[in-house]
Amino acid sequence: MPFSMTDRAQVLAEALPYIQKYSGKTVVVKYGGNAMISQELRRAVISDLVLLSLVGIHVVVVHGGGPEINEMLEKIGKQSRFVDGLRYTDGETMDIVQQVLCGKVNKDLVGLINRKGGRAVGLCGLDDGLFQASQLDEKYGLVGRVDQVNPQPVLDCLEKGYLPVVATVAQGTDGNEAYNVNADTAAAKLAIALKASRLLLLTDVRGLLTDPSDEGTLIPAVRASEIPGLIKDGVIQGGMIPKIDCAVEAVRSGVSSAVILDGRIPHSILIELLSDAGIGTLLKL
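The chain above was modelled as a monomer; its predicted structure follows.
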């Protein structure tokens, strides 16, 4: 059935109360997964970010770049290695991580947003000590635990109307110059420091599912107090556990709500924030 002008008007009217709700508020988006790899999804995400920014929502993007790091390591003949799901980061790998995340990936995203009509500025955790970290565990190499966040560089950008795009390399505080930091963790820590209204964690699944093999079993909303039971029952398992842990920490530390959101769906950010539908799993106290 064709999408009529009346349908289009209804969509815009439905968005109005949500625009009013979030106008002037901060939303942190962790951008990664397939939404970074697929050109179609990337264009949709960039459009969503620009639109939200233009209607007065303070959008902050925190990004990873695993595939690009893997590609660069391959070019220099170095094998990617993972320990407990985290990239083992020796000195040579850390150099590549810093070059790729703070350089190519960050600046490519900034360029895409600006070409779409946004006003993006690229930052990384080394800028004015935005992310300050110490070594998580020797078995992971130069992987950092975020101990402190200085949100001022991001706040300065937002105050001037810019859209900050943040790469997750942290300033070392224990002797090492820099650390590789998990992007979900960094996004949650930054959302807390910014007192954000919402944290969106883009991923490659629908959200929390009661049956991981059936995407029709999406859990639309869950409270932080229910999470331990869901982990015990095996509903939350594997790589979803650290992601959920980040979301729980965020809402327990003042972020109004967090959403595990399917980045494979075009314009999932707009659907989640500006419509009655909501398509991810909402986590709140």
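The chain has ten helices and 13 strands.
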